[in-house]
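Narrative summary of target 7.
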Amino acid sequence: MSFKSLGIASYFLEKLTEEGFTKPFPIQEKAIPAILNNKDVLGIAQTGSGKTASYALPILMNLEGKTSTKNRHINVLVLVPTRELAIQVADVFSNFSKALPFRFKTMAVYGGVSINPQMINMQHVNVLVATPGRLLDLVSSNALHFSELSTLVLDEADKLLNMGFQKEMDKILTLLPSKRQNLLFSATLSPQVQGIEKILLNKPEVIKIEPKETNLDLIKHTAYAVTDARKGPFLRYLIKHYEMQQVLVFTSSIYKAENVVDKLKKNGIEARAIHSKRSQGSRKVALKEFKAGTLRVLVATDLLSRGIDIEFLPYVINYELPRSPKDFIHRIGRTGRAENPGEAISLITSEERHHFKVIQKKMKRWIDLTYTDEVSLHGF
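Modeled conformation, tokenized:
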């Protein structure tokens, strides 16, 4: 199946090729035709399944000839739980919109930053990607209006509900026109999601994409006990000592990702970071170089790791542990793919040992901890 056969407009086809989309993901195959036909959709799919493009492309096509001419009257609202996801989704819309034959503007709004620049930039926005609290702040400031709204998207609805946004979402829903297309995407079909689905969706197209199982048997697991001060030098020791040429390193924060990259570069190891504060262009170049094998080390946060899909990746290193065992399995599942073996390495400080035991218990797999006190890190 091709994007053309799904009904995707010709002006998007070249752009999709540029972005490396050779064929549609399963969620795209099912969601794109339904959204183009103005149906409500309930999509159950993991992050990294291609769901953002599955709704962004048809939404943009449906806006042709229908974008609002009234200032501050948005056409599409995408509600998301976090600032990082808001930026990521807006980037996808902005990137694809470059191929559009009509004027279009998208914008991400979220809390934790000054509201004044967001209020000013709200002029002539067509697609607004927002966290619930900041959206209501903008509404109370009379910075936007919903009378022209045609589509509502709830992305990562399970997280929106689990993070305590229920009251804000209830208030937002009362402000929107009753006649609109509703698209709800979630990683799980929790009782909360089922509850909002019944209220929100009208005869929806239900799409459920089962996550791929990670074959842990193909992955060699190694864990090293290190102090926090020795973690950076030990990472560089591993890369140089074992002559690793393609390594994916995971950190738990944007700050740490940048810090690790800086230290690697200072020690003669070419590395790039990929996270939500990097531009779409920068992320694209880094991923392309890493996949091609011309970039030795890619340092990623969990949020953007889902799109990293490489058939043969020899090494994954957990510089810091993720919060959940599911994220740990997802991380190490970047290696050991397509029947190719790989190695997953975790660097564990004394503070992380208890959490590492919890992760192992959930995985039902125990990993021996190798102590590194005798390893000389002089010069690393």
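The first strand starts at residue 41 and ends at 44.
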